[in-house]
């Protein structure tokens, strides 16, 4: 029995943060708009299409962006609003499709395989786009093909607020004339390497023998060759929203040593922060738990600006601990829980971070991921 051809739709909210800000303040519509920190050392978290005409891109230093477009309006990020609208879109998609994957705060994959005989996949995906726009006011673009890879590239080509279907059998010819950097997983360094080899289009990349790509880049070379040839078997992973991440520690002996307890809180916070960043998640609520020697257990929580940055998380944890701890009593256990989790990463959350801070955290996480979770940590967490 022949294998059924898949039909995968990809949806991406156009300039998501910018359009949310325009919904909140319609006067911003049509203007060069930058979302991010106001200091020269901050980075651009998002920018409007009007700002992109000046060469501005996400993750660009704000100093450079202001130089390219001095008349741009700069707005601090509001993750609470972005999370709210992301949930609205998620609920619309959840209620209208059989299976979907939420790839980020503003990006979705939908498996429409088998629906052609009932509705027509292109028509159905178009109706879903229209429904999102009508019910949220947010423009969303859509690509449709036999796999996630080609659908995502099609969405990028359809932006802004467009739809593009790649007919079965035309996947390679669609990708062929595009620049290599249009392929997912091809960043600036890989682009530079390929360009030095004379490889500028996906067609040229697809014609390089797979063995040569493996010798050049290892397993990544094989995957890059597969993508250039429009091969992608990855499934649409059903979306299940994670409710929380948490950790706790029970001391070998009850203690009133505040410095020791604070060091343990720092260590636990770093552990959870690392876990959030590995999952591309942000937290908007922190809970600290104390269990005293008499087994009386108390908790205190606070809402925060959505983040996965250790320095902000640690400060909030310390503040909660100070409000919660009764210095006259021995402590048996400490616990921390992060809730109100949303998809997100450095560039879309750390609006007041500097480029240097972002690179530092990325390098630290890279070391801990490669060599062990606790290879690099704050000295204050080692008491």
From TrEMBL:
Positions bearing the site annotation: Substrate discrimination: 17
Keyword DNA-binding among UniProt keywords: yes
A single GO molecular function term of this UniProt record: magnesium ion binding
EC number: 2.7.7.7
Active site feature: 107
Keywords: Cytoplasm, DNA damage, DNA repair, DNA replication, DNA-binding, DNA-directed DNA polymerase, Magnesium, Metal-binding, Mutator protein, Nucleotidyltransferase, Transferase
Cofactors that this protein relies on: Mg(2+)
GO cellular component: cytosol
Binding-site positions, Mg(2+): 12, 106
Domain of life of the organism encoding this protein: Bacteria
InterPro entries per record: DNA/RNA_pol_sf, DNA_pol_Y-fam_lit_finger_sf, DNA_pol_Y-fam_little_finger, DNA_polymerase-Y, DNApol_IV, Rev_trsase/Diguanyl_cyclase, UmuC
Keyword match Hydrolase: no
Pfam families, per the entry: IMS, IMS_C
GO biological process: DNA repair; DNA-templated DNA replication; error-prone translesion synthesis; SOS response
Enzyme superclass (EC): transferase
Chain ranges of the UmuC domain: 8-187
Function: Poorly processive, error-prone DNA polymerase involved in untargeted mutagenesis. Copies undamaged DNA at stalled replication forks, which arise in vivo from mismatched or misaligned primer ends. These misaligned primers can be extended by PolIV. Exhibits no 3'-5' exonuclease (proofreading) activity. May be involved in translesional synthesis, in conjunction with the beta clamp from PolIII.
Record note on quaternary structure: Monomer.
PANTHER family: DNA POLYMERASE KAPPA, DNA REPAIR POLYMERASE UMUC / TRANSFERASE FAMILY MEMBER
Stored HAMAP family: DNApol_IV (MF_01113)
Family of this protein: Belongs to the DNA polymerase type-Y family.
Official protein name in the record: DNA polymerase IV
Organism from which the protein derives: Flavisolibacter tropicus
Source taxonomy: Bacteria, Pseudomonadati, Bacteroidota, Chitinophagia, Chitinophagales
